[in-house]
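User: I'm preparing a small set of examples for a lab meeting where we compare how different chains pack in three dimensions. I only have the primary sequence for this one, and I'd like the structure in token form so I can line it up with the others. Please keep the answer compact; I'll paste it straight into my notes.
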Amino acid sequence: MQEIVQLRDMPQDGAEPIVRMSGVGKWFGAFQALRNISLDVKRGEKIVLCGPSGSGKSTLIRCINQLEKIERGQIRVDGVELTESQQNVERIRREVGMVFQQFNLFPHLTVLENCMLAPRKVRNVSRQEAAATARRFLERVKIPEQADKYPAQLSGGQQQRVAIARALCMSPKLMLFDEPTSALDPEMVNEVLDTMTDLAHEGMTMVVVTHEMAFARKVADRVIFMDKGEIVETANPEAFFLDPQHERTKVFLGQVMH
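Assistant: Understood. Below is the structure token output for the 258-residue chain.
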């Protein structure tokens, strides 16, 4: 099936993108989850992926750090091609932070210990340095007072902010967010979105799967609409929300905008 793409206001410069996906295809058995995906992500760019459930959004970002392996095409992250080489995969995962729908915190570790774990194990930093870094990023996500608590003692919004701090402790070059507010009670959504907005304003490169259209409109450099494993339309937020070009995009926005 031919990919249907409306390209408007694509970023242009000579720098190598931090992510380059070329002709990517992904199957789960007989089901094709991604169809001929080609996408560049510039350094410092904020991209929001949206679309109906099952459109391939989460699969796409999981392929960027090879949580899902592709069957066709090529992905390069920070100049490194993702291949079967486990060394390349591990190298990329050190530089790419990911925040999931579920918080995935270790329940037997304190908040501080959760944030210290990866720098200690992967980057071999000292306990003192890891603790200082963890406290700095807990301060950045505005929950430094929770450092000595266990995840079960925190609200869902607080746990998700810990998950963001934990990812930041690895000093990632790119942050991936897979519907980070979908598991939260409505009153907790804004505190997580506010944290993500602060990160965006500080220049973090971000690819975000979300149905939070107000966040997309406020933060994104580009909004990408996916359906049935394809990129259907991509544009800057103003063009995307005020002048969508594809009928499938218009139907989706009619359903999610209130």
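A couple of notes for your slides: Residues 1-12 have pLDDT under 50 and may be disordered. The two ends are 32 Å apart (CA to CA).

User: Perfect, thanks.
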